[in-house]
């Protein structure tokens, strides 16, 4: 795992910790739980998408350095 991947992993762990702290109590409206879950999931999916894109870019750069065509 490269440094960028480690950063995305740390960000994911932070999202989980912040979600645990912000979790609504049973007396709070149910929509708060759903809003928190949707926010956490979209944050993690966004980080995963950026990491996958980063890995693809690295492969493309390596292929270009070897004069190979991209595999999109």
Topology diagram in text:
Layout: H1 3-22, H2 30-65
Helix pairs in contact: 1-2
Provide the residue-averaged pLDDT: 92
| Rg, Cα atoms, Å | 18 Å
Low-confidence stretches: none
Classify the helix fraction into a percent range. Answer: over 70%
Q: How many beta-strand segments?
A: 0
Number of separate domains: 1
The shape, in one word, is elongated
Model description:
The chain has 72 residues and is mainly alpha-helical. The protein has one domain. 78% of the residues lie in helices and 0% in strands. The chain contains two helices and no strands. It starts with a helix and ends in a 7-residue tail after the last helix.
Summarize the structure.
It contains two helices and no strands.
Give a quick set of tags describing it:
single chain; 72 residues; mainly alpha; 2 helices; 0% strand; elongated
């Amino acid at each position: 795992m490269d440094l960028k991947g480690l950063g995305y992993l740390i960000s994911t762990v932070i999202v989980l910790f912040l979600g645990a702290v912000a979790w609504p109590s049973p007396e709070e409206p149910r929509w708060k739980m759903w809003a928190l879950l949707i926010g956490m999931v979209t944050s993690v999916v966004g980080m995963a998408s950026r990491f996958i894109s980063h890995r693809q870019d690295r492969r493309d750069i390596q292929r270009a350095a070897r004069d190979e065509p991209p595999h999109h």
